[in-house]
Request: fold
Amino acid sequence: MPRKKNPTKQELAEQISTYKKTGSYKTKKGSANDQKISYNYFEASWEVPKEFLPSGASRRRLTARGESKEEAKWTLVTQITNFLKDPSTHWLKTHARGASLDAYISEKWVRKLRSDPISETVKRRHLENYKNHIQFALGNKSIITITTEDLQQLIHTTLRTTRTLPSAIRKDGERVIEGLGEATRKNVYSTLSKLFRSIYEDKLIVENPMKYVSKVKVKKQDEKDLDRKIEKVSAMMTKIQDHPDYCRFLLQFLGLRRAERLG
Reply:
């Protein structure tokens, strides 16, 4: 369904409701001479139509104040115009309890990745890392409440332990994910760094929590151990080269995925 065209400023001004209200304050709190002073102001409000709301938002009302009806109305018109330029960012910034990390991924990050000059393989890897290793722990949390400690715990403790996830395609309804090694956790660290750098650049958080998360150190492969493994593979391939299924065995050592081998 095509997005509705943004209303003009004049059309917005005609849709806005303005009410006269009264406020008050005390001149000196706790003093015997304190006085309660009342004052009048005008408040303008506009209910955002559903077609302009980003996914995840069910309702949004914008308001503005002024000393006169016209001041309140045209202040709100400016606010609405800014909102309609980028509803998703505005909603993420002003959501009462802070939008979740899932909401940011769906509203902003997926589109950012599409326009990123990195390869399609790396884009897919970032999204898979989020879905498989990040979403279960942080997806429902507000982006403004995720701390360095949360991220440190996820990368260096939680992902190192075996966990069970529900699965719709397995007969037992469960999928077991073994504790991740250094290389995979390093990839997850890279995804989180890119993700929170994007959130910080969008000014949705005042500080990047990934800034203080310690990096994952990957142990370097012992070259002598690697040479020994290569010798074993060479000896094994020599031994099975006369086997009738030699070609099928050979495919196992080409680094292909199962679907690629079948193809």
